[in-house]
Amino acid sequence: MSKQMSHLDNIPSTPGKFKMEKSPFVHNRLRWHSSLAKLAFWSFIFLALILIFFFRYPSSNPLPQDPSRRSLRTYNWGGPAWEKRVRSSARARSRNGISVLVTGAAGFVGTHVSAALKRRGDGVLGLDSFNDYYDPSLKRARQALLERSGVFIVEGDINDSALLKKLFEVVAFTHVMHLAAQAGVRYAMENPSSYVHSNIAGLVSLLEVCKSANPQPAIVWASSSSVYGLNTKVPFSEKDRTDQPASLYAATKKAGEEIAHTYNHIYGLSLTGLRFFTVYGPWGRPDMAYFFFTRDILKGKSIPIFEAANHGTVARDFTYIDDIVKGCLAALDTAEKSTGSGGKKKGPAQLRVYNLGNTSPVPVSDLVSILERLLKVNAKRKIMKLPRNGDVQFTHANISLAQRELGYKPSTDLQTGLKKFVRWYLSYYSGGEKAAS
Ligand SMILES: NC(=O)c1ccc[n+]([C@@H]2O[C@H](COP(=O)([O-])OP(=O)(O)OC[C@H]3O[C@@H](n4cnc5c(N)ncnc54)[C@H](O)[C@@H]3O)[C@@H](O)[C@H]2O)c1
Ligand SMILES: *[C@@H]1O[C@H](CO)[C@@H](O)[C@H](O)[C@H]1NC(C)=O
Ligand SMILES: *[C@@H]1O[C@H](CO)[C@@H](O)[C@H](O)[C@H]1NC(C)=O
């Protein structure tokens, strides 16, 4: 029975196999005349149809709560009113303003970058899928914030080529700030396909549309410090090896850097990858330690503090969001034009990678001490061994390249930045009805 089922399951997806298994009936023509064989044959067909109906039908009808199927959601876009909104949001107000498509605009970094661009007079159009990797109501609140400053966020997926093409038809974007991605290191073990969907397939779809656009935009995108993986040489410099990723997330970001190289090489797209080091601040991401430590300390819940082998310190080069935003804007401003047109390369184009960090790693236990002082609550610390499921022991950026070429100079220490984060956190979640889950 179960063997038969799996055979039937294979029919639609392996037509070759289907043909092969049909052939015995064709060759046994002699037996065809026996009515007994005829009866057996038609009973078999009848049974097969019933089995197909009962076992295929439910599997082709995905349940909406299946996280790997989230990408199949459909969005409403198009129409004259929608196009008008798109155009007006993307129009620069200042004379030398650029027109930027910001993907992941309802995300943490995307919101801050979009607001900063709009503030200085650039045109900004957001694109975001509002997926539920973390509380979507926080993304909606960021959307409302951007809407007040005149930034429209189109709701859609970066892997939707038809939507991307439409956006480039409506607006001749000069730049793309690509921040949409599946972030998070440990979640990759739970939902690996979401990383492939957004960080690989989505990136390729975006670059395909960019290379065909006329004019081609210059692209700045978020890679990650996680590409340094198991590298032990510190501080991390751009030339260091990045071929030992410790998580699928890191592997997809590394793949993104290689894909960027290809599109630069073949199509003349101007591409700049930014390796962010643990970005934190107001409107931050609830899946990151500084954020859920704050929530759990306030709740009186114990917080896990990881320790490496031999009581080794786990440390992060925490980088404040305003410093990251300055780095992003500087990367956009120094990006040279793409050189191709109509999908053809005309000459060599710019290809860059920069670390954007803070250059001062802080042990995670110090992060907790700072939070205790700011929240005026003692944390219940639970020391645990660092699991080998993606997180590395420490990160430390060498930023001299970004300093030299982008004028990047981070100026916010962890104490100062966390103070701003905690102030935002308390005001955002005050009242209780919005209490972090
Ligand atoms: N925050 C950090 O510490 C950090 C560190 C290194 C790299 N990065 C990278 O920086 C970028 C921004 O990170 P963030 O912290 O703002 O994360 P975030 O999750 O807050 O923002 C990403 C946004 O992209 C959207 N998105 C995801 N997949 C999408 C898809 N297929 N189509 C359309 N939208 C999609 C999400 O809804 C989300 O709003 C990401 O590429 C991330 O990998 C962040
Ligand atoms: C992304 O889009 C392409 C082309 O539209 C599609 O073939 C592919 O299945 C999509 N990939 C994922 C992982 O969703
Ligand atoms: C930092 O990177 C630069 C290259 O940008 C390199 O010359 C320098 O030696 C690096 N510094 C350290 C301490 O590794």
List its salient traits.
golgi apparatus, two-stranded parallel sheet, binds 2-acetamido-2-deoxy-beta-D-glucopyranose, UDP-glucuronate 4-epimerase, single chain, 437 residues, disordered C terminus, binds nicotinamide-adenine-dinucleotide, Rossmann fold, alpha/beta, EC 5.1.3.6, globular
Describe the protein's topology.
Layout (H helix, E strand, L loop, with lengths): L1 H9 L4 H13 L1 H4 L2 H22 L23 H11 L8 E5 L4 H12 L3 E6 L7 H13 L3 E4 L5 H10 L4 E4 L13 H21 L5 E7 L23 H20 L3 E6 L2 E2 L8 H11 L2 E6 L7 E2 L2 E2 H14 L16 E6 L5 E2 H12 L4 E6 L14 H7 L7 H15 L9
Parallel strand pairs: 1-2, 1-4, 2-3, 4-5, 5-6, 6-11, 7-10, 8-13
Antiparallel strand pairs: 9-12
Helix pairs in contact: 6-7, 6-12, 8-9, 9-10, 11-13, 13-15
Bound molecules: nicotinamide-adenine-dinucleotide (NAD) and 2-acetamido-2-deoxy-beta-D-glucopyranose (2 copies).
The site of one 2-acetamido-2-deoxy-beta-D-glucopyranose (NAG) has 7 residues, from α9.
What does this structure look like?
This protein has 437 residues and is of the alpha/beta class. The chain has a domain at 181-277 and 319-357 and 396-411: Rossmann fold (3-Layer(aba) Sandwich). It is 44% helix and 13% strand. The chain has 15 helices and 13 strands. The strands form four sheets. It has a seven-stranded parallel sheet with strand order 3-2-1-4-5-6-11, with helices on both faces. The chain has a two-stranded parallel sheet with strand order 7-10. It has a two-stranded parallel ribbon with strand order 8-13. Helix 6 links the parallel strand 1 (99-103) and strand 2. Helix 9 runs parallel beside helix 10, helix 11 packs across helix 13 and helix 13 packs across helix 15 (414-428). The protein is globular. The protein starts with a helix and ends in a 9-residue tail after the last helix. Residues 1-32, 52-69 and 432-437 have low confidence and may be disordered. Bound molecules: nicotinamide-adenine-dinucleotide (NAD) and 2-acetamido-2-deoxy-beta-D-glucopyranose (NAG) (2 copies). The site of one 2-acetamido-2-deoxy-beta-D-glucopyranose has 5 residues, from helix 14.
